[in-house]
Amino acid sequence: MTDAGSTATPSLSPLRWRMPISLLVVSMINWFDRSAMSLALPKIATEHHWTTAEIGANGARLLSTFFLGYGLANMFLSPIAERFGPRKALMISVVAFSICTALNAPFGATVSALVALRFVLGLAEGIHFPMAGAIVSRWFPLGERSRANGIYIFGVQIAVIVGPFLMVPMIGHFGWRAMFLLLGSLGLIVALPAVIAVLRDDGPYAPPPGQQAVMSPLAVFRNPDYWLILLAGIGSNIILYGLTAWLPTYLAEGRHVAFADLAANTSAPYWLAALAIPIWAVLGDRTNKRALFAAVGCGMAGTMVLFGARAPSLLLTVIFLSAAIFFQNAYQTAEFAFVQRILPPGRVGAATGLYNGIAIIIGGAGGTALIGKIVETTGSYDSGLLVVVAAGWVNMLLLGLLYRRIRY
Prior knowledge:
By secondary structure, the chain is mainly alpha-helical. The chain has 15 helices and no strands. Helix 1 packs antiparallel against helix 6, helix 7 packs antiparallel against helix 8 (about 175-200) and helix 10 (about 260-285) packs parallel to helix 12 (about 315-330). The model has no long low-confidence stretch (mean pLDDT about 85).
């Protein structure tokens, strides 16, 4: 299969590596914002005296509604944002998600208001990864893209490791509303300057003006490799967001971890996973076997979650979940590189948005809602985690087939 990227070897400026570092800062802060509800949920539940069934039902609404807005923005706003320019689009995104996060403080008195704000937050954050992928495809050759994508994805790992240690004490000392106010301020003070000062739309692989939207974004569905990537993305989001969204509540309610100890136990599975980003990114770029590593990684992730759900102690659960997230990151470092591999740079932003949006809505929103429904029905958090197990095993098969087709 021929390369979808440029076959030329243009002059590459070392300054290009500043781009994914800037995107890392934005990824970290917008992940703080989206994951804050997961950490606040146990306190919100206590404040409203929810039962386990009510936590499952209301938690599913709060956690999954974000993904609905996020997915819709990916699909419908990414093509517009790409034409507008990735840099300007990201500036608007940062301002919007920062303000929306802060509004949880004055307007978060009811579940309905919190659900509405979660939906708008999803809309505001939805274009980030598609525009990040567009910038990477314009500045980096195919052989560097796992590392370039891995850098800004590493911001997610920083957020899930550091976030609980920042947000849990904030909630404990000042309340969950104050925590949302502080996070909103962080986006405007830190993330927005990083975008303005560093990011650029041009690059050695950027398409000539006027050639970005030659074909409809829907044309990608004629590509069978795109379908495989999309299905794998749905499974990956079930794994990733199923764990990220439900882990704090699972530990607090299912494993009876005290709220004061929640920060250490919630972030612990991501400590080892932080090492996974550079390991999988470098291995992918050097061996050109990204899809193969991702297949094995997803299969192992599902298996480790199964062991973790059945572990007799909290320590073993944390160890198995740490291994699961480590292996899952074999896919996270490669997923956007897959889209960048099969499509030319001028179509990467819109196609990534379409991929990410559908994968988020079905895998993120649907997966977290399904886990919540199983918890509500069975009263068992361990049963809910079996959804994650199945997603990992199915992905192993899909990505193995993808590797046979694209050898990337």
